[in-house]
From TrEMBL:
Alphabetical UniProt keywords: ATP-binding, Nucleotide-binding, Transport
Name recorded for this polypeptide: ABC transporter ATP-binding protein
InterPro entries: AAA+_ATPase, ABC_transporter-like_ATP-bd, ABC_transporter-like_CS, ABC_transporter_ATP-binding, DrrA1/2-like_C, P-loop_NTPase
Organism: Deinococcus roseus
SUPFAM superfamilies associated with the record: P-loop containing nucleoside triphosphate hydrolases
Amino acid sequence: MKAIEVENVKKHFGNVEALKGVTFSAQQGEVVAFLGPNGAGKTTTISIMLGMRAPSSGTVKVFGMNPRIPKARARLGAMLQESDLPATLKVKEAVELFRRLYPRSLPFQQIMDMADLTEIADRLCGNLSGGQRRRLSFALSVCGNPDVLFLDEPTVAMDVQSRAAFWDSVRKFKSEGKTIILTTHHLEEADALSDRVLVIDHGKVIVEGTPRAIKEQVGGTRIRFHGQVQEQQLQNLPGVTRVNINGVNEVYTRAPEAALREILQHDITDLEVSKASLEEAFLNITARN
Ligand SMILES: Nc1ncnc2c1ncn2[C@@H]1O[C@H](COP(=O)(O)OP(=O)(O)OP(=O)(O)O)[C@@H](O)[C@H]1O
């Protein structure tokens, strides 16, 4: 069964057309990453899927239901970008409080372990660091053992170790058949974790596919070298999708062999050829758009 179905959703805020017809669906057990530059429409899409905002037009279903009805909401968990925590509660008290809100909540210790909170269980929420606050937000988002978990830029402010531990917990959650919808600006995380990526820009889904397929289709091959070559000559190379000249010449191309043959006609040094990363593919897509 489809966990989430979004059909031609549009959203206006006054004159701002934040979403211009977004369509997508997620299966149970799937991890889908939303990528896109600031202001692209990722958070708006998430808030509509959560039933926090109504779409201006189009439909959203969670397990076949309107996300605003309590039966649907009980199956959703969310870790949003800004979430206020009760400053004078201890971490363990906040977790206990949230557990009581749900009919089939996870065991207390399991939540504390998932979010790596045991060591700071007695701290006041108001005294937590940025990364610790994010970990507590994660704990609160999984308290109700949701079937769909929304993570909006979850690793902002987390240090490298917290981030790695966090993604391990998310992987475990996925292995229990949960659906995860996430947004992140760390594209290597989206690449490592997600089954499917949607690139959103200007309120529309512009590319959709597995990270691997997107890298192959859009990223192509990166060729770097030193040497005096005019930018226009680089732009005219076969299959070029993007050119950077910043100390070193950098060309992204879908026809690497043909482009290389032409580049080697010039007097160049320090040649490097590699497959583009998801981040590079993303930059190519949004630059074109
Ligand atoms: N409540 C609101 N009132 C007016 N405009 C809004 C409102 N919420 C969002 N917008 C606008 O809608 C567009 C999409 O915003 P949204 O927050 O969904 O982007 P985003 O992709 O999540 O960006 P970021 O990566 O910065 O979080 C932006 O132009 C934003 O300014």
